[in-house]
Amino acid sequence: MKILLTSALAIFSFSCFAQKVVDVDKSDGVPINSFYTVNGTPVSNVRYVRVTDGTPYFRDSWMKGVAISAKDARYQNPRVKLDLMDNEVHFLVDRESELICTIPLKDITLTDTINGTSYHFVWSPAVPGLSSVKKGWYLQLAEGKASLYQVFNKTIQEFKPFNSPVAEQKIVTTEDYLLAYNGSLLHPKKWKEIPALLADKKEALDAFLKTDRMKEGSNAERMAAIVSYYNSLQ
């Protein structure tokens, strides 16, 4: 079974945050393939049948996906999900059949076509700075001399509701951050820790933390802003 898509190739540029409004239909002239099944397998939801809370996916909603294979081929599909429990890329065929992509991928960008927000994930074994970490899809927040990644850890917890003979499950998501810098892999937890880790520009980064730009935003957004600012100083 094949999916033939004729939508134009997306260009993805990444800002100081991992989330950005992009033109997903702008062509860069690179030939594009759709997600072919290529020995693909249908999706079985048996594993999650008792899950009553949480999700194995990065987002439950379908998003447009543009991926780079291990052989540098480019693929896209308008309806893609990223399963972070099993590290699988799911996509729809004819808006009905859900399949698992079996092409080895090293990079995928998911775009919410409603608001244009994009999320750039990398496959850790394909990134030299992440070769020592657990295999998985990591959200790239900033790239340069210092690169920042957000890690979504998903675990299944089982519990039995009061007076119920059947155990239920929930998927719990926790977040970690990895900072690849100067040949080392650092583990910041809060955005205020970043200047001390990027010590060669600490004074400039300390000053940046006092600017209006850093007065609001999530922990991930502030981390990304600091690391991107650091990279702009090089």
Topology:
Elements: E1 33-34, E2 41-42, E3 51-53, E4 63-69, E5 74-83, E6 88-93, E7 97-100, E8 105-112, E9 117-123, E10 137-142, E11 146-159, E12 168-181, E13 184-186, H1 194-197, H2 202-209, H3 219-232
Parallel strand pairs: 1-5, 3-12
Antiparallel strand pairs: 2-7, 4-5, 4-8, 5-6, 6-7, 8-9, 9-10, 10-11, 11-12, 12-13
Spatial extent as radius of gyration: 19 Å
Regarding quaternary structure, what we see is single chain
Largest sheet: 13 strands, mixed
Residues in helices, as a percent range? 10-25%
Structural class: mainly beta
Describe the protein in words.
With 234 residues, this protein is mainly β. 11% of the residues lie in helices and 37% in strands. The chain contains three helices and 13 strands; from the N terminus they run βββββββββββββααα. The protein has helices at 194-197, 202-209, 219-232, and strands spanning 33-34, 41-42, 51-53, 63-69, 74-83, 88-93, 97-100, 105-112, 117-123, 137-142, 146-159, 168-181, 184-186. Strand 4 and strand 5 (74-83) form a beta hairpin. The longest helix is centred in the last third of the chain and has 14 residues, at 219-232. It starts with 32 loop residues before the first strand and ends with a helix. The model is unreliable at 1-32 (pLDDT under 50).
